[in-house]
């Protein structure tokens, strides 16, 4: 039930990101979440967060800087069509050219047939039948200068601990805001290194 995009609601009624978001926040805060459910009785969620006795520091509110616009080409590999379309709109508004793939096979085909440069692969870590990392490794054989940015509903820590991605690999947690995505893409494009392998 904490899996991103899992929902029991009918199509168009829910995104399946609510509990995934809660799980991510709780885990990143060093806490735990348990679910108790009985058919016909209901469901109870218990959230345990670390106690903090230190006084709360007030942080001055600053206006978020708008990410710089781009002109590069981005290959987006995401199997969930609604999210893929949203990512495309966000990136095209920032000036990027976007190539879309819903699976590993389509991503490989696009990378082979696209005559121009592909500057960055933005790939979901977990895909049906493949991993974003495996697709990236395949594409890097023919496009050695390709930069990588991975995304997942799982936390970066969980992904690294399971060995799916190497530590310090460019990563963004789902769900993300349009500004956060644009800023992360720009950061990766401007970085010197491709990614950790």
Q: How many helix segments?
A: 6
Structural class: alpha/beta
User: What is the rounded Rg?
Assistant: 19 Å
In round numbers, the mean pLDDT is: 84
Summary, kept brief:
This protein is an alpha/beta fold and 197 residues long. Helices cover 32% and strands 21% of the residues.
Task: Describe the protein.
By secondary structure, the protein is α/β, with parallel strands linked by helices. Helices cover 32% and strands 21% of the residues. Helix 3 runs parallel beside helix 4.
Task: Give the helices and strands, then pairings.
Blueprint lengths: L17 H11 L3 E7 L3 E7 L24 E5 L3 H13 L3 E5 L2 H10 L6 E5 L1 E2 L2 E2 H11 L4 E6 L3 H6 L9 E3 L4 H13 L7
Parallel strand pairs: 3-4, 3-5, 5-8, 8-9
Antiparallel strand pairs: 1-2, 6-7
Please supply descriptive tags for the structure shown above.
197 residues; alpha/beta; five-stranded parallel β-sheet; two-stranded antiparallel sheet; 6 helices; 9 strands; globular
